[in-house]
Amino acid sequence: MHVIATAGHVDHGKSTLVRALTGMEPDRWAEERRRGMTIDLGFAWTPLPSGRVLGFVDVPGHQRFIGNMLAGLGPAPAVLVVVAADEGWRRQSGEHLAAVDALGLTSGLLAVTRSDLADPGPATQQALEQLRASSLGDVEAVAVSAVTGNGLEDLRAALDRLVAGLPAAVEDGPVRLWVDRAFTVRGSGTVVTGTLGAGTLRTGDELELSGGGVRVRGLHSLGAPYDEVRAIARVAVNLRGTERHEVERGDALLTPGAWRAVHAVDARLSVDPRNLPAELLLHVGSTSVAVRLRPLGPDTARLVLHRPLPLRAGDRALLRDPGRQSVAGGVLLLDVDPPGLGRRGAAAARAASLAGAGAVPDLVAEVTRRGAARRSELETLGITTDPAADLVVSGEWLVSPALWARWVSLLQAAVDAHVAAAPLEGGLPHEAARHAVGLPDARLLAPVGAAAGLESVTGRLRRRGAVTSLGPAEAAVAEVERRLAADPMDAPDNPELAALGLGPRELAAAERAGRLLRLRDDVVLLPDGPARAMRLLARIPQPFTLSQARTALGTTRRVAVPLLEHLDTRGWTRRLDGMLREVRRASG
C-alpha cells in the first residue's frame, strides 16, 4: 500500500476528486457534507492500474483548519496538489505549498480540477511555476473533471507512476505511528488510526503510548482485519486496556525502547532564525508543540520544546508563527541530544559544529561526549560512522568504552541484587533490567547482557549457568517429586500443596527450574507427565471420552481435565466434539 496526502485551496475540489477516484466519501462529518467543506482529515483508498493500492489522506483547505491540514500532511511521503482550472493559484494554494516545501517533500503530482469549466492551460502553467520553486521541483500535471470523468484514468496512471518511484518502505524499522484519529468501537474499545511510515505492526505487540505500555488487540487496514500490517499503510489499531480519554491526535505509538522523548533539539532551518519570533509552534507528524527558539547561526537554532516528543536526528518538521497564522520555515533535526550552551560564545561554537564539512565533530569525541549515539543521528551531522577501534559498536549504536563498561557493571549488580532479594523469581525481568541500567534502546540489552556473562531464561536475566534456588521450598518440592515418581498422575491438591508450604511463587520457581509442570487450577505434574499420559492414551480405542481417559490414566477428573486441555494446546490430542477426543500423535 502507498499513502498520499492532498493539498490545495478551499473549494478547489480535493474531496470531490478523491470521491471520484475511490468511490468513497472522505468527509466523515455530517457538517462537512452539509457545508460542502472539509473540516477534518478524511481517508479513502483505491486500486491503481498496476494493482497497487493507494490510500488518500484528504486535508481541509480552509485557513482556519491549517492545524488539521498539517496533521494529515506531516506523516505522508507524497502529495497531490489540487488547483481549480477556473480559479487558478490562490492564497491557500500558496500556504499549503509552503507547508509542503517546509516539510521537504520531494514527491508530488499536480491535478488541475474543474477542467470542464475553464481551459486548464493557464492554471496548469501558473501552478507548475509555483511547484518548480519548491521542494517538489518539476512534477507531472493532469487536467481532470470529477464531474464528467474526463482525465480520471490519466490521473490514475500518473498516480501509479508517482508511487512506483517512491522509496521502498523500511519494514523492519522501529514503529512510530503518529495518531491522527482516536475513537471508541462498541465491543472492541479504543481504536486509533494513523499512517504507518516505517516498521511492522502485529496483533499482540506491546507498544509504548505516552510513557506507558499498551497491547495491540487488533489491526485493520483498507477496511479489513489483519494479523500484521507493514509500512507504508493506513492502519487502525485496536488498543487493549486503553481508555478513549487516554489518547488523542498527536500522540504516538512507539516500539518500546527505540525512541527517547526529547526536550531540546538543534536543527537546521530553511530561513534565518534571527528573523523569527522566539515563541513558535513546531509541527511534526500529526502533532504540534510550542517551542522557544534560540538562534545559533544564520541557518541553525536550538529549539526547546514545552513538552517532550519522540524525535530523532533526520526528522523533518516545520515551524509556524501562530500570531501571523503562517508557516515560518522548514526544520531538519540535526541533534536530539545537544550539549548545554552555558558558556560565553557557546552558541556560535555550536553553530560552527553544525555547519557541515570541516567543522564536523570527530566521531570518537562526539560519541564520548554523548556516551552513546545512533549512527543515523551522527550521519545527519555529517560524521562518518565507520567502525572505530576506540568505540563499542552494537547494531545502530556506537558507545564509548567507559559507558559500555558502566552498563555491564550496573547490569551485573542489578541482576545479583534482584536474585538475592527474590531468589524464587529466577532472575531480573528484561524491562526492569533495561530501566535499572538506563539503556536507551531495548535492543542493547542482549549484547550488554552477554558482555556481563548473563543469560536470558523465560524473559529474565541471570548469571550464566546459575541454578534457581528453591530455598526453604526445596524439601517440599522434593516430596512432591517422590510422590509423582511413584504415581505420575497422583497430583497433590491445593490443601496438600498449602500444607507443604508451596504457594504460587514457590511453584512458579520450581517450574522455571524444570522441576515441576503447572497446569490449570494449580495441578502439578512432573515435566514428563504429559508424555507419560500420551503413551497411555495412545493404547485405548480412538476416539475416547473424558471418562475413558480418566480410567486409562488412573486419575481423577480434577487432574484429567486440565491435563487433556494441555495436550490439546500442544497439538498432541484433538477435540472432535464436546465429548470426544483422539490422539494426533504418540509422544516419547
Question: Could you characterize the architecture of this molecule?
Answer:
The structure is a single chain. This protein has 588 residues and is α+β, with helices and mostly antiparallel strands. The chain folds into 5 domains: 2-164, Rossmann fold (3-Layer(aba) Sandwich); 176-254, Translation factors (Elongation Factor Tu (Ef-tu), domain 3, Beta Barrel); 261-359, Elongation Factor Tu (Ef-tu), domain 3 (Beta Barrel); 401-463, Arc Repressor Mutant, subunit A, CATH 1.10.10; 476-583, Orthogonal Bundle (Arc Repressor Mutant, subunit A), CATH 1.10.10. It is built from 18 helices and 32 strands. The strands form 8 sheets. Strands 7, 8, 9, 11, 12, 13, 15 and 16 form an 8-stranded antiparallel β-sheet that branches. A hairpin with a 4-residue loop joins strand 19 and strand 20. Helix 17 crosses helix 18. The longest helix is centred in the last third of the chain and has 21 residues, at 401-421. It is flat, with a radius of gyration of 31 Å.
How is the topology of this model organized?
Elements (H helix, E strand, L loop, with lengths): L1 E6 L6 H9 L7 H6 L6 E6 L5 E6 L7 H8 L5 E6 L6 H12 L5 E6 L6 H13 L7 E4 L8 H13 L11 E3 L2 E5 L3 E8 L3 E3 L3 E4 L2 E10 L2 E3 L1 E3 L2 E8 L11 E3 L6 E9 L9 E6 L2 E9 L4 E11 L5 E6 L4 E10 L10 H8 L9 H8 L1 E3 H6 L11 E3 L2 E3 L1 H21 L6 E2 H8 L7 H7 L2 E4 L2 E4 L10 H13 L7 H6 L4 H9 L4 E2 L5 E2 L3 H9 L8 H8 L3 H14 L2 E3 L5 E3 L5
Helix pairs in contact: 10-11, 17-18
